[in-house]
Design goal:
The longest helix is centred in the first third of the chain and has 21 residues. The chain is globular. The chain folds into two domains: 166 residues, 3-Layer(bba) Sandwich (FAD/NAD(P)-binding domain), CATH 3.50.50.60; 156 residues, D-Amino Acid Oxidase, subunit A, domain 2 (D-Amino Acid Oxidase, Chain A, domain 2). Helices cover 32% and strands 23% of the residues. The strands form four sheets. An eight-stranded mixed beta sheet has the order 5-6-4-11-12-13-10-14, sandwiched between helices. Strands 9-16-15-17 form a four-stranded mixed beta sheet, covered by helices on one side. It has a three-stranded antiparallel beta sheet with strand order 2-7-3. By secondary structure, it is of the alpha+beta class.
Length: 354
C-alpha cells in the first residue's frame, strides 16, 4: 500500500520520502508472504459486500497500475476454480447459494458456473479424473506479489522517491505543514500503527511456497474442506503458493508441524504431482486487522491520513484504497469510498483520537 501510494504521489509531481521499518525486498511485510489472489466473488464467502465492490474495482485497475509501473509483473485473469471431495458436497452447496446471493446483489459480477467432470477437465486438464464437480468464477485473477514489490521499488527509484529502509518512524516524528517539515503524511504501517490505532490486531497466516514441475494448473484453485480449506495459486516457473491458515494470534514464530502437514497434505489430495514438489519456503506473517475485519481510512490530523485494516484482502483492494485515499487527500471527501461503503474515520480538519 505504501509503495503504491508513494509512486502515485510522485507521478503527480510531489516530492516523496518513504520510510520503512523493513528492507527494500519487503521482507518482514505481509505483502511479501501473500498469495496475491484477486478474487472478489470467492472472497465474498468471508467478507462484506463493500470489500467485494472494492475488489471488483481493483481488478480493473491493476492492469492500469502495472502499465504505469513500466516493468513486467505477472498478472493473470483466468478465473478461480473451486473444488471439493465427495464428502464435502453439502459445504459446496452452501457456498454456491452464498455466491449466487452475492452475484444477485452485484449484477456487474459474473456469477459462479457449476462444472461437471467433463467441463472441469476442459477448464483444467491437470485435474482430469480427480474431481466430479466444481465451480468456476470467471474473470477473477492474481498477480505475482514479489515481482510487483520489486517493480515498484525500481519505479520509485526512477521517480526520484527518497527511500529510507530499516527506518522505523511514527507520525509523532513529523509535524506536517510546519517549516522544514513535510506538507502531508500517510501512515501505511499495518500492525506498526497499533500504538496510534489501538483496535488493530494481528491475524496469523502460514503459507508454503513449493516448486512442482509435475503440476500444471492454469489458474488459482480453492479446495473446500470443513477443517482446512486451502488455496493453491500457480506462479511463473512452476512455483505454487499454498495457504489458508487463519489463526487469531500475534505469534510470529515459525509454522507449526500440524499446519504445515495440513497444508501440504491438502495440496497432495488435489494433485499427486505435489508429492515430488520441493518446499522452497514455509512462511508466517500477521495480517493487520480491525475489529470488523474491514479496511478503513482515518484522519490523524488535517494533513495526516492513515490507511489500514486490509486484513487478508491487501492485494484485492489496494488499488481501491489508493484511489479513495488520493480523492480524500485532494478534496477532503471520496465519492468512490462512499459508493463502496468504505469506512472513513474523522475529517480532514478533525483528527480521530487514538
Amino acid at each position: 500500500m505504501g509503495r503504491l501510494l508513494a509512486l502515485a504521489l510522485a507521478q503527480r509531481g510531489h516530492r516523496v520520502q518513504l520510510h520503512d521499518a523493513g528492507a527494500a525486498d519487503g521482507s518482514g511485510a505481509a505483502a511479501r508472504v501473500a498469495a496475491a489472489m484477486l478474487a472478489p466473488l470467492a472472497e465474498s464467502a468471508v467478507t462484506e459486500l463493500s470489500v467485494v465492490r472494492m475488489g471488483q474495482h481493483s481488478l480493473q485497475r491493476w492492469p492500469e497500475l502495472i502499465a504505469e509501473i513500466g516493468r513486467p509483473v505477472f498478472f493473470q485473469q483466468q478465473g478461480t476454480l473451486i473444488v471439493w471431495h465427495r464428502q464435502d458436497q453439502a459445504e459446496a452447496e452452501r457456498l454456491k447459494r452464498h455466491l449466487d446471493r452475492t452475484a444477485a446483489a452485484m449484477p456487474e459480477l459474473a456469477p459462479a458456473l457449476s462444472l461437471d467432470a467433463q467441463a472441469m477437465a476442459e477448464r483444467e486438464p491437470a485435474l482430469r479424473g480427480r474431481f466430479d464437480q466444481g465451480f468456476f468464477l470467471p474473470g477473477e485473477g492474481q498477480l505475482d506479489n514479489r515481482e510487483l514489490l520489486a517493480a515498484l521499488l525500481h519505479a520509485l527509484s526512477e521517480a526520484g522517491v527518497q527511500m529510507h529502509w530499516h527506518s522505523p518512524r511514527q507520525p509523532e516524528d513529523f509535524e506536517p505543514g510546519r517549516a522544514g517539515q513535510p506538507d502531508g503524511l500517510f501512515d501505511c504501517r499495518g500492525l506498526g500503527a497499533k500504538p496510534q490505532w489501538g483496535q488493530l490486531r494481528g491475524v496469523r497466516g502460514e503459507v508454503a511456497r513449493v516448486h512442482a514441475p509435475e503440476v500444471q494448473l492454469q489458474r488459482p484453485l480453492r479446495l473446500m474442506h470443513p477443517r482446512y480449506p486451502i488455496y493453491i495459486a500457480p506462479k511463473p516457473d512452476h512455483v505454487f503458493v499454498i495457504g489458508a491458515t487463519e489463526i487469531e494470534s500475534e505469534d510470529r514464530s515459525p509454522a507449526s508441524m500440524r499446519s504445515t502437514l495440513e497444508l501440504l497434505s491438502a495440496a497432495y489430495s488435489v494433485h499427486s504431482g505435489f508429492a515430488e514438489a520441493r518446499v522452497l519456503e514455509i512462511a508466517t506473517q500477521l495480517r493487520p486487522t480491525l475489529p470488523d475485519n474491514l479496511p478503513a481510512l482515518r484522519w490523524l490530523g488535517p494533513r495526516s491520513l492513515q490507511i489500514n485494516g486490509l486484513y487478508r484482502h491487501g492485494f484485492l483492494i489496494a488499488p481501491a484504497m489508493l484511489d479513495a485515499a488520493l480523492e480524500l487527500w485532494a478534496a477532503g471527501h471520496s465519492p468512490q469510498a462512499e459508493h463502496w461503503g468504505m469506512k472513513i474515520e474523522g475529517t480532514a480538519g478533525a483528527p480521530v483520537p487514538a
